[in-house]
Amino acid sequence: MATLQPNPLAEADSAVDPVIDPTPNDPTPTAQTVRAAINRRNAQHSTGPKTPEGKDAVRLNALKSGIYAKTILLPHEDRARYDQIGADLAQDCHPQTPQERRLVQDIQDTEWRITRVIAIETNLHMVVATQQIETVQAMFGLTDPLESLAMGQVAGFLANSRVFDQLNRQEARLRRLRTQQLRELCARIDNRPKAPPAPQPAPQPQPAPAAGFVPPKPETAPPVPSKPGLFDGVPDHILDRMPNFVGKTAEMHQKEWLKKHWNGR
Hints:
- With 265 residues, the chain is mostly helical.
- The protein has helices at 8-15, 31-42, 52-58, 79-93, 98-140, 145-159, 161-190, 236-241, 250-261.
- It is 56% helix and 0% strand.
């Protein structure tokens, strides 16, 4: 004999709180109205943590590798090292506008993500190498720990080459992004408005001289006496009587003639 199944809509209707029932006067509620009433009733329950401790505990629930995280720092990462990157950028670039400060923050975050990808790759090499140590030791008969680790790293890389390739692509993408951000920041710095030149002080007027005061003339050096010539002080009537001496010895003959014919020489 077939048994009658209970009506799910009737059970849901009986479970609906009449206070929040969207259609209390409707004798035949539909599935949509019943579901809406149930959703409103469930919304009265907890919708997430309310205390600061609870919010802090679940704020990283969706965080995986941290490569795409909006919260840049993971719980185990060094805050001081991250802040030092920002301090170095601020010291080098001296951001002045909100846009420049935003670009400095973006470059800081990108630089930290590059550091994180490199750390993930390094740690992944160690993990996969450790996983392969027993295999390579049995395969090649290795006993040296360092040699076994090196061979395990090779085997682990070959077994996880796709993951390493993804990390390399992420690093290359982040480096391109950092280059673009630096280029934009440098362009903004170069296009800063130039500061106007500092005004020069006006020349101070010279005080007017007192009435009746004659400024002294600048002192001049006395003229340097020139070398006396041969005919200086010789009367004209003596010079008229002097013969006309020529040649290289003319001056010598002129001196001798003056000694003989003029007492003043």
